[in-house]
UniProtKB/TrEMBL annotation:
Keyword terms of this UniProt record: Apoplast, Glycoprotein, Glycosidase, Hydrolase, Secreted, Signal
The gene coding this protein: LOC101494780
Organism of derivation: Cicer arietinum (Chickpea)
Name of this protein: alpha-L-fucosidase
Keyword Signal set for record: yes
Residue span(s) of domain Glycoside hydrolase family 29 N-terminal: 73-339
């Protein structure tokens, strides 16, 4: 007689356990999706968020009115009597710039700090009777304003007699690297230019030794070169990335200084096994160094550059060269301020914030924490919309609708991926009121589409993801109005 009773008891217990299990499943907060490798490092993420970095080319070329010094310049010509690095930092601060990179040594070999390994430096200059140190003043001024610093140390040295004697020269270069990275702390980026003397192409630079030493001395630094290892060159000096631009690439296919890699580094590689995002270097003026006869680019040119660099998943490295007095010229400072203010004007208002945002599905359902509202907050890395992974049709989309049947007025579309979990999207399409207007490839940290033609007045915008390496994870979207672009059209 005890048997049926026991079976019944067992049955009830199992039912209760199952019920408990399903309740606890329901109560579980869904976990974030797995990343798609490769991933950025912490320092690369910090770098990406800077968006614009300031480059400063300064040295004997500033005084000899040249771009590539011969190395035979007398150090006495270097005399910036009104040098004021606080003014440099102030200009950067006003432009919302958080990192400044200075040419501690350019191809002419003249050093802006008192290196103990050469006399061809500020020591032999007229400036401050040879007692000055531009790099130190630069670091102090930037640090005072909470701006980070970076250093450019040209491997090509047209002055030093050791250049061309591989062992001797590489030791000399490495000694200067150590000197700089020991003396000036918290350097956030170091710039290795691949240029070589055209008549001495067989000269070897021991990049592996140099990079190893750099990381040993300052591990959170980002090393820039044609081939990284942390930041890659974009392949041109116009500040323009490829329309398709992956932060991923195969480093083994790259060699520093090779002219054959420029198109590969311009676009990156969806199959790349290394996270190596691109930096777009360009000067605010025609030359890298200051020349009296030159003037800054127009605001519209700078905005074009912004859309082609920051708007294509890259960081813009904009050169603003100090003049012979040792100051950033008034017209450059003014243009830079205008540039920042234009960017703020364009992106200050996000029309999507006052619209309805609908999505194809959301991970973990309504309360899962991966809803469309995450695309409208200020966290552009770790707060993101994630669709369900089990969507059979793989049909992932976002729609932005004007409220109360109102129309959306914009001419710029912004989309950002949650790159902390990898760069995923390979193909997407954008429709305005059902009409296809954009067929896009990569997105990455930030993708900006400035629309051709006049301003759009639409009921809804649909972004459809066609192909991706995993489910799309979108950290931010925006519809913006660029009045500077609009003004290029004759109003009707
Ligand atoms: C180039 C150099 O030759 C230019 O003078 C400049 O420094 C630019 C940023 O990199 O390779």
């Amino acid at each position: 007689m005890t048997r049926p009773c026991f079976t019944f008891f067992l049955f009830i217990t199992i039912l209760l356990q199952l019920n408990k299990f399903s309740i606890s499943l329901l109560e579980q907060v869904p976990s974030p999706p797995l990343p798609i490798l490769p991933l950025p490092t912490y320092s690369q993420l910090k770098w990406q968020q800077r968006e614009i970095i300031m480059f400063l080319h300064f040295g004997v070329n500033t005084f000899s009115n040249s771009e590539w010094g011969t190395g035979h310049e007398s150090p006495s010509i270097f005399n910036p009597i009104g040098l004021n690095t606080t003014q440099w930092a102030h200009v950067a601060e006003e432009a919302g710039i958080s990192l400044m990179i200075l040419t501690a040594k350019h191809h002419d070999g003249f050093c802006l700090w008192p290196s103990k390994y050469t006399k061809h430096s500020v020591i032999s200059s007229t400036w401050q009777n040879g007692k000055g140190d531009v790099v130190q003043e630069f670091v102090n001024a930037a640090t005072d304003k909470g701006i980070d610093v970076g250093i450019y140390l040209s491997p090509w040295d047209r002055h030093d007699s050791r250049y061309g004697h591989d062992l001797l020269y590489n030791e000399y270069y490495l000694a200067q690297l150590q000197e700089l990275l020991k003396k000036y702390e918290n350097v956030r980026e170091i710039w290795f230019d691949g240029a070589k003397d055209p008549s001495a192409q067989n000269v070897s630079y021991y990049f592996t030794d140099w990079f190893g030493m750099v990381k040993e001395l300052q591990s959170s630094i980002n090393i820039f070169s044609d081939a990284g290892p942390d930041v890659r060159w974009v392949g041109d000096e116009d500040g323009a990335a490829g329309d398709t631009c992956w932060s991923t690439i195969n480093r083994t296919s790259l060699s520093i200084g090779s002219p054959n890699i420029t198109s590969y580094i311009n676009t990156g590689d969806p199959r790349g096994t290394d996270w190596l995002p691109a930096e777009c270097d360009v000067s605010i003026r025609p030359g890298w160094f200051w020349h009296k006869s030159e003037s800054p680019k127009k605001l519209s040119e700078l905005l074009d550059i912004y859309y082609k660099s920051v708007g294509r998943n890259c960081v813009l490295l904009l050169n603003v060269p100090p003049n012979t007095t040792g100051l950033i010229s008034e017209n450059d400072a003014h243009r830079l301020k205008e540039f920042r203010s234009a960017i703020n004007t364009i992106f200050y208002q996000n029309i999507a914030e006052s619209s309805y945002v609908k999505v194809s599905s959301q991970r973990g359902g309504k309360e899962g924490g991966f809803g469309p509202e995450n695309m409208l907050d200020s966290d552009h890395l770790w707060s993101y919309w994630a669709p369900k992974e089990d969507n059979k049709e793989n049909d992932h989309w976002i729609e932005i609708w004007g409220k109360d049947d109102g129309r959306l007025r914009f001419n710029v579309i912004r989309i950002q991926e949650a790159i902390g979990l990898g760069q995923r999207i390979q193909r997407y399409e954008i429709y305005v009121d059902g009409k296809g207007i954009i067929k896009g490839t990569t997105i990455g940290y930030k993708r900006l589409h400035r629309l051709d033609g006049d301003v759009v007045h639409a009921h809804f915008v649909r972004i459809k993801f066609i192909e991706a390496k995993g489910v799309p994870l979108i950290s931010s979207i925006g519809l913006h109005f660029d009045p500077f672009w609009h003004s290029r059209f004759t109003p009707t």
